[in-house]
From TrEMBL:
Zinc found in the keyword field: no
PANTHER family for the chain: N-ACETYLGALACTOSAMINYLTRANSFERASE, POLYPEPTIDE N-ACETYLGALACTOSAMINYLTRANSFERASE 9-RELATED
Location of the Transposase Tc1-like domain: 238-300
InterPro entries for the chain: Glyco_trans_2-like, Nucleotide-diphossugar_trans, RNaseH_sf, Tc1-like_DDE_dom, Transposase_Tc1-like
Transmembrane segments: 9-30
Species of origin: Amphibalanus amphitrite
Protein name (database record): Polypeptide N-acetylgalactosaminyltransferase 5
Boundaries of every Glycosyltransferase 2-like domain copy: 163-203
Domain (Tc1-like transposase DDE): residue spans on this chain: 308-467
Signal peptide: none
Length: 512
C-alpha cells in the first residue's frame, strides 16, 4: 500500500507542474494581446485626430491647458507628439470643470485683457467662452445614466460608425472638446471616421486660430477709397441721395465707382435701407397740440379699450386709377417694350362711407354722383340708415360685413373726423340722442387720418382694386369696390385695432 501511495503522489506532481506552466504561458500571452490592442486603439484615435486637424486647417492641438482665473490649474500635459495626436486626461481630479463642477470666476480680480476676452466671448457666442477655454478637452463628467442602462451589455460585433458634427460659428474650445468626447468614449474598433461640417461659418478659424474675416489676400479688394466712404457716410438721412446720384458725385470728384458698388456699401457695410420719405399731413401748431393732448389722454388705453371704438370715414376712389409706379415694374429690354397705361385728366370718382370695429364692417355706402355730403344728407342717409343698420346686427358668426360690430354695443364709442357735416349742430345732436357713446366735436384731432386704422382699410381696398381687371364704368368700379370690401378679414381688422396703443405712444414720443 505504501508503494502505491508514493506512485500516486508522483503522478499528481507530474500532471500539476505542466498545468501550472501552461496557465502562466496563457496569462502572459493574453496580457501581451491586450497591450497590443490598447496600442492599436491609441494609434487609431491619434490617426483620426490627425486627419481632423488636417481637414479643419489646424496643425496641432494646444499642448498645454490654460490656467484658471484664480491662477491654479491642472498639471501641464505631455507634448502633443508623445500623446499620439491627442491630449491625455488631466492629471488633477480638481481641474476646472472636472465632474461637471462649476468654474467660479472673480471678475474683479481679472486683468484688463482677461475682462476683454470674457466680454468678447459673451458677445460672440452668448456663453462664457473664457471659462470654456480653461476646461480640458478630456474633462470628466459624472455618469448620469440609469442603473439599468449601466448594467446593459452590447455585442462587440456591431457595424462601423462615422460620426458627423455640424457647426456654425462655434467656439474653438467647445468644438475640440466635442471631438475628444467622441474619441474618448467610442470603441475604437467601431469608430471609422469623424467628420466636421462647417455650416457657412462667418467667423472661421485658420491654422493659427485667428479669424479669417479680415485675413489678407482673401476676397475681392474694395474699390472705395477712404474719401469715398466718408462721402457716403455723410449722405445718410439726407434727401435726394440715390445710388445713381452718389456714384455720379464720387466719379466727378475723381473716385470712380458704380451705383452697384454704392448700393452694396450702403446696404451691406453700413446696414442701411433705401426707404421712401414718410408722408404725413401738414399740421398747424394748434393741430399738433390737439393731437398730442388726445394721445396723452389715451396713451394708457389697453387693446380692450380700443376694441370699443367704431371708426368711420369717407374715401374717394377713381376710375382708371394710376398704378403705383414704384411697385408696378415690367422686365423688358427697353422702355418701348413696356405696355402703356391709359390715363385721363379728370377721372370719374366715387365717394364711399364705411365704419369698422375690431371684428366687423358696415356695408359700403355709395354717395351718388353730384351729391354733396351736407349735414342733412349725412344724418338722414348715412347715420340713420347705414350706421344704424350695422349697429343693430346680432349675428355672432359669419363674414365681417354680417356679424355684430361689438359684443356689447352699449359700451361703443363712435368716432368721426372733423368734416363740416360731422361737426354740424344737427349731427352732434343726433349722435347724443341715438348713439351709446361718441367723441364730440373737438375730441378727435383734426387733420389726423394717420391715427385712424380705417385709413389702412382704405389702402387695402385700393391694393385689391389695383390687382383686379380695371373698371371702365362707374358700375364696374362699384362692383370691384364691393368685392374688395368683402375680401377684408376679421383678423386684419383686429390687428389694425391692436396697433392703436402703438400709434398713441408714437404720437407722444415724436410730439406730433
Amino acid at each position: 500500500m505504501a508503494v502505491c501511495r508514493r506512485r500516486s503522489l508522483g503522478f499528481k506532481a507530474l500532471v500539476t507542474i505542466p498545468l501550472v506552466w501552461v496557465t502562466l504561458l496563457l496569462f502572459f500571452f493574453v496580457d501581451q494581446q491586450v497591450t497590443r490592442l490598447e496600442k492599436l486603439e491609441t494609434g487609431r484615435r491619434g490617426g483620426i485626430v490627425q486627419r481632423l486637424m488636417r481637414g479643419s486647417g489646424v496643425d496641432s492641438l494646444p499642448a498645454r491647458l490654460p490656467k484658471t482665473a484664480t491662477g491654479s490649474g491642472p498639471a501641464d500635459d505631455p507634448p502633443v507628439g508623445e500623446q499620439r495626436g491627442f491630449l491625455l486626461p488631466p492629471q488633477e481630479p480638481s481641474g476646472p470643470g472636472e465632474m461637471g463642477k462649476p468654474v467660479i470666476v472673480v471678475k474683479d480680480k481679472l486683468s484688463k485683457e482677461d475682462k476683454e476676452a470674457m466680454e468678447k466671448g459673451w458677445s460672440s457666442n452668448a456663453f462664457n467662452q473664457y471659462v470654456s477655454d480653461q476646461i480640458s478637452v478630456h474633462r470628466t463628467l459624472p455618469d448620469v445614466r440609469d442603473d439599468k442602462c449601466r448594467e446593459s451589455r452590447f455585442s462587440r460585433h456591431l457595424p462601423d460608425t462615422a460620426v458627423i458634427i455640424c457647426f456654425h460659428n462655434e467656439a474653438w474650445s467647445t468644438l475640440v472638446r466635442t471631438v475628444h468626447s467622441v474619441l474618448d468614449r467610442s470603441p475604437a474598433h467601431l469608430l471609422t471616421e469623424l467628420i466636421l461640417v462647417d455650416d457657412f461659418s462667418s467667423h472661421a478659424l485658420d491654422r493659427s486660430g485667428a479669424s479669417l474675416e479680415n485675413r489678407k489676400g482673401r476676397g475681392r479688394k474694395t474699390v472705395l477709397s477712404r474719401v469715398a466712404k466718408i462721402v457716403l457716410a455723410k449722405a445718410v438721412l439726407k434727401r435726394r441721395q440715390s445710388t445713381r446720384k452718389l456714384a455720379k458725385k464720387l466719379t466727378e470728384k475723381g473716385h470712380p465707382v458704380s451705383k452697384t458698388t454704392v448700393h452694396h456699401y450702403m446696404t451691406k457695410c453700413l446696414g442701411l435701407k433705401p426707404l421712401k420719405l414718410r408722408r404725413q399731413p401738414k399740421l398747424t401748431e394748434a393741430q399738433k397740440r390737439k393731437r398730442l393732448t388726445f394721445a396723452r389722454e389715451r396713451k394708457n388705453w389697453t387693446i380692450q379699450d380700443w376694441r370699443r371704438v367704431l371708426f368711420s370715414d369717407e374715401s374717394v376712389f377713381e376710375l382708371m386709377h394710376p398704378p403705383n409706379r414704384q411697385n408696378e415694374r415690367v422686365w423688358a429690354h427697353s422702355s418701348a417694350e413696356v405696355p402703356a397705361i391709359d390715363t385721363v385728366k379728370q377721372p370719374l370718382k366715387v365717394m364711399v362711407w364705411a365704419m369698422m370695429s375690431h371684428q366687423g364692417l358696415s356695408e359700403l355706402h355709395f354717395v351718388p354722383r353730384g351729391q354733396t355730403v351736407t349735414a342733412q344728407y349725412y344724418v338722414e342717409e348715412v347715420l340713420k340708415k347705414s350706421a344704424a343698420s350695422a349697429m343693430k346686427r346680432k349675428r355672432k358668426t359669419g363674414p365681417p360685413t354680417q356679424v355684430e360690430l361689438l359684443p356689447k354695443m352699449s359700451e361703443a364709442i363712435f368716432q368721426q373726423d372733423g368734416a363740416p357735416a360731422h361737426h354740424a349742430t344737427s349731427t352732434q345732436q343726433w349722435c347724443r340722442d341715438n348713439l351709446p357713446g361718441f367723441w364730440e366735436k373737438g375730441v378727435w384731432p383734426g387733420n389726423s387720418p394717420d391715427l385712424s386704422p380705417i385709413e389702412n382699410v382704405w389702402a387695402i381696398v385700393q391694393s385689391e382694386l389695383d390687382i383686379m381687371e380695371p373698371a371702365t364704368t362707374e358700375k364696374a368700379l362699384i362692383r370691384n369696390l364691393q368685392r374688395a370690401w368683402l375680401s377684408i378679414s376679421a383678423e386684419t381688422l383686429d390687428i389694425l385695432t391692436c396697433g392703436m396703443p402703438d400709434r398713441m405712444r408714437g404720437c407722444v414720443q415724436w410730439r406730433i
